[in-house]
């Protein structure tokens, strides 16, 4: 399927600093909820601003439905943005905030009223037309910002960390509302966040970024279950991460033992990284598992206990279980072969191994920068 937006070989630099994005490629699929996920400074907001037209690249091109829009001003792009602080006008009521863009375009009053009321109905704010911004809750202000964005009928809605100022409970509620809204509208959402749980809960596609480079693109399940490299494994959820050696297909050695896994296609004796998620580890009596660990800490997390065990080589194992085990207890842990995820370790020019990203599934090397394969 042809992407709705394509960033092709884009480079962005602010002043004399190193480039935020260098020779960067990304395709965004139409009608999907795509999330740009990564730590602060990784380039995700810059990507959003490129699509909106607020930033122009020093090199490269931006396309919308195959049409070059690199130099097109923001007001001529079929894009609207919901900002982190919502950017509502405090001196205007809800109706006039939502109507602002229509009035700038010179729409007739009857059409303005019809479109504004339709947008407010869509976000469940009918009856709030004459409320002022300071009279609204955080969630209501967010919905006003969304109504103001969708009233102009954009083909893409850009959302720059719009939930970051909300408390945890309201944030969870608004995640459901945003996801349902995207499905009802059927338009493309591009959402920026550094919150892994938020990205996994809401997205059709997650783009994981670090230092201006794509680390992995995939569905939330693919990103969580099959991380492409150490960075993704560490950034998405909680992980047990060990260095190992792939002996042959379906056999991997780590922590002084050989385990059966479901991975294949690695060279014999290849250095690898091994990931196991803490919820995939089962506690059994000492001597009855695949290895023994001594519990050195335990915390109650509400849904489960979070425990740390140390094996006989000093390896640290994070374990999530509904069963509490007291500190100091020796227990066995068991896990299935498909709970083991094996990743290649990347060799640097000096011969050492690092956490650098290996090209992930669905990525191709293009000018030295991982890009979405086309």
Description:
- The chain is α+β, with helices and mostly antiparallel strands and 374 residues long.
- It has two domains: 5-224, Rossmann fold (3-Layer(aba) Sandwich), CATH 3.40.50; 282-334, Nucleic acid-binding proteins (OB fold (Dihydrolipoamide Acetyltransferase, E2P), Beta Barrel), CATH 2.40.50.140.
- The protein is 22% helix and 34% strand.
- The chain has a six-stranded mixed beta sheet, with helices on both faces.
- It starts with a strand and ends with a strand.
- The relative contact order is 0.12.
Biggest sheet architecture: 6 strands, mixed
- For the record, the CATH class of the largest domain is Alpha Beta
Strand-residue proportion: 25-35%
Counting structural domains, the number is 2
Structural class: alpha+beta
Radius of gyration: 24 Å
The second-level CATH architecture of the largest domain is 3-Layer(aba) Sandwich
Overall body shape: globular
The CATH superfamily of the largest domain is identified as P-loop containing nucleotide triphosphate hydrolases
Low-confidence stretches: 348-374
Side-by-side strand order of the widest sheet: 6-7-8-3-9-10
What helical percentage do the residues reach? 10-25%
Function: Part of the ABC transporter complex PotABCD involved in spermidine/putrescine import. Responsible for energy coupling to the transport system.
Pfam family, one: TOBE_2
InterPro entries: AAA+_ATPase, ABC_SmlMolc_Importer, ABC_transporter-like_ATP-bd, ABC_transporter-like_CS, Mo/tungstate-bd_C_term_dom, P-loop_NTPase, PotA-like, Transp-assoc_OB_typ2
Catalytic activity: ATP + H2O + polyamine-[polyamine-binding protein]Side 1 = ADP + phosphate + polyamineSide 2 + [polyamine-binding protein]Side 1; a quaternary ammonium(out) + ATP + H2O = a quaternary ammonium(in) + ADP + phosphate + H(+)
């Amino acid at each position: 399927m042809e992407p709705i937006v394509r960033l092709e070989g884009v480079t962005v630099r602010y002043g004399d600093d190193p480039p935020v994005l260098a020779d960067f490629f990304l395709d965004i699929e139409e009608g999907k909820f795509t999330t740009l996920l990564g730590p602060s400074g990784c380039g995700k907001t810059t990507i959003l601003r490129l699509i909106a037209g607020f930033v122009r690249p020093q090199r490269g091109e931006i396309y919308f439905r195959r049409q070059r829009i690199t130099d097109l001003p923001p007001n001529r792009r079929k894009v609207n943005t919901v900002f982190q602080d919502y950017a509502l006008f405090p001196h205007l009521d809800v109706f006039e905030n939502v109507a602002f863009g229509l009035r700038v375009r010179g729409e007739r009053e009857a059409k303005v009223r019809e479109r504004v009321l339709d947008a407010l109905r869509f976000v469940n704010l009918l009856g709030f037309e004459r409320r002022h911004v300071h009279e609204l809750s955080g969630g209501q202000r967010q919905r006003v910002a969304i109504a103001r964005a969708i009233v102009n009928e954009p083909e893409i809605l850009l959302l720059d960390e719009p939930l970051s100022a909300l408390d945890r409970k309201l944030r969870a509620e608004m995640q459901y509302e945003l996801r349902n809204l995207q499905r009802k509208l059927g338009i493309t959402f591009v959402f920026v966040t550094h919150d892994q749980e938020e990205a996994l809960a809401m997205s059709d596609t997650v783009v994981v970024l670090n230092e201006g480079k794509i680390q992995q693109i995939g569905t939330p399940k693919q990103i969580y279950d099959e991380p492409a490299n150490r960075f993704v494994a560490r950034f998405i959820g909680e992980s047990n991460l060990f260095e190992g050696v792939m002996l042959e297909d379906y056999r991997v050695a780590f922590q002084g033992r050989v385990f059966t896994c479901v991975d294949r296609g690695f060279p014999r004796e290849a250095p690898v990284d091994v990931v196991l998620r803490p919820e995939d580890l089962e506690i059994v009596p000492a001597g009855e598992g695949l290895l023994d660990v001594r519990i050195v800490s335990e915390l109650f997390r509400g849904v489960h206990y979070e425990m740390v065990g140390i094996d006989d080589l000093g390896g640290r194992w994070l374990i999530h279980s509904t069963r509490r085990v007291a500190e100091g207890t020796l227990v066995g842990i068991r896990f299935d072969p498909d709970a083991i995820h094996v990743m290649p370790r990347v060799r640097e020019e000096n011969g050492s191994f690092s956490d650098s990203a290996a090209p992930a599934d669905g990525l191709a090397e293009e000018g030295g920068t991982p890009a979405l394969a086309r």
